[in-house]
UniProtKB/TrEMBL annotation:
Protein name listed in UniProt: Tetracycline efflux MFS transporter Tet(40)
Subcellular location: Cell membrane
Domain Major facilitator superfamily (MFS) profile residues, every copy: 1-405
Superkingdom per UniProt: Bacteria
Keywords: Membrane, Transmembrane, Transmembrane helix, Transport
Residue intervals passing through the bilayer: 12-33, 45-69, 76-97, 162-182, 203-231, 260-281, 302-325, 380-401
Name of a matching Pfam family: MFS_1
Species name: Flavonifractor hominis
Name of the gene: tet(40)
Gene3D superfamilies assigned to the protein according to its UniProt record, in alphabetical order: MFS general substrate transporter like domains (1.20.1250.20)
């Protein structure tokens, strides 16, 4: 498949595959690692995610500006090395303070990649339909994620620190390989005449702010991204605890509680791969898909499934609605990114995507502690219900984005 594509597109698919493999291997059992090895309580568990998202929020815009001013390729490489360092730190030092610091390191690395990667491939492959590029990249990421889940689960049954350490090492290796093979031929700086880093940063930030204010569709899409951030942290951090505390996980042969979470993640990735392929096939047949319909239906489905997951007590019912909720988010994200890409100026692409990432992080910073306190003071199911309700404004914003024109 890679041989038939251009070098940039092949590198993009390779990156999505290997990076997802490393990240999935590192994170598939990270909540279990935090609960059983680091021994965090529910509030500390949410706080770990909040610290990571705070780091993303603080660094997202500066790293996006660096990508648009200097090099999107270089930004991706820096991100991969920070990813590797953060995972190695988290796995090697199983105490609360180092785990918090690790979230800062790999959270910062994530900001160097977010925005820069999408801007890089959109510029290098201007002639390809961007919906299909992002969906295919998402699919390759899900395939890599499946392999990462398998490896992470097998290693986690031996030692819960091993997936993090090996995943971090793989990120460092990927960074070295990308340094040799990743092209950048269509990049031009957003500001040609440099006046110094600080002045350039302020100038580009003002240009970006003015552009976003003048693009009503983009404003609506960024607001939807903020709602998605508000409604994601509680799901990511509390779903494992809900399975462990509020239902009985069946032991079937080698399927103990640790292995089950690997299997759940594996099934979720498989469903995501299938759904992406069906959506790509429909695009190839009809030429396009209704982005409004996709984002609206997946947002509504996520809310419904998350509420059902929260109130459920049967393991099999909880498993079904959990997988459906995860699938809704998997389908929505690449379509929303492609929709946003159509309303972004090429020279400010990384900065605008970074703004989107910053809003997502800000939403998680606000939403995480709220649902964490609800889970701690009331119950985990009520924390999950609160998480679902935080996405409700998106249902009113999607039709607004669909009707407006720049």
């Amino acid at each position: 498949m890679f041989a038939k594509n251009s070098k940039a597109y092949s590198v993009y698919l390779l990156f999505r595959f290997v990076c997802s493999l490393a990240v999935s291997m590192s994170t598939v059992l990270s909540i279990v690692y935090h609960l059983e090895v680091v021994q965090l309580d529910v509030f500390q568990l949410v706080l770990v995610g909040t610290v990571q998202e705070t780091s993303c929020f603080l660094f997202e815009i500066p790293t996006g500006v660096v990508a648009d001013l200097y090099s999107r390729r270089r930004s991706v490489l820096i991100g991969m090395f920070l990813y590797g360092l953060g995972f190695l730190m988290e796995g090697a030092l199983p105490w609360f303070a180092p785990v918090l610091l690790a979230q800062v390191v790999w959270g910062c690395g994530d900001t160097f990649i977010t925005g820069a990667l999408e801007a890089w491939i959109a510029s290098e492959e201007e002639d390809k339909p961007i919906d299909k590029v992002f969906l295919r990249g998402s699919q390759m990421g899900q395939i890599g994620g499946v392999l990462g889940v398998v490896l992470g689960t097998l290693l986690g049954n031996i030692n819960l620190q091993m997936p993090l350490i090996l995943g971090g090492s793989l990120c460092l290796l990927l960074g070295l390989v990308l340094g040799r093979i990743m092209p950048e031929t269509n990049f031009s700086p957003a500001i040609e005449e440099r006046q110094g880093l600080l002045k350039d940063f302020v100038c580009l930030f003002k240009l970006n702010l003015g552009f976003v204010k003048g693009a009503p569709v983009l404003l609506a899409l960024l607001a939807i991204t903020l709602c998605g951030g508000l409604a994601s942290e509680g799901f990511d951090r509390l779903s494992t605890a809900h399975f462990l505390d509020d239902t009985v996980i069946p032991v079937i042969g080698p399927l103990n509680s640790v292995t089950w979470f690997g299997v759940i993640s594996l099934i979720g990735s498989g469903l995501g791969i299938l759904a992406s392929q069906l959506l790509i096939a429909r695009m190839e047949k009809k030429g396009t898909v209704s982005r409004t319909s996709v984002v609206m239906s997946t947002s509504a489905g996520y809310i419904l499934c998350l509420v059902l997951f929260a109130v459920g007590r049967s393991f099999w019912f909880m498993l079904l609605v959990f997988l459906l909720a995860r699938l809704m988010r998997t389908i929505k994200e690449p379509v929303l990114a492609a929709w946003m890409n159509d309303h972004v100026d090429e020279k400010m692409r990384a900065t605008v995507f970074s703004t989107s990432g910053q809003l997502d992080s800000f939403g998680q910073i606000i939403g995480g502690p709220i649902v964490g306190l609800v889970a701690q003071q009331v119950s985990i199911p009520w924390g999950l219900v609160c998480t679902a309700f935080l996405l409700l404004p998106a249902l009113f914003l999607v039709p607004v984005a669909g009707k407006k024109r720049d």
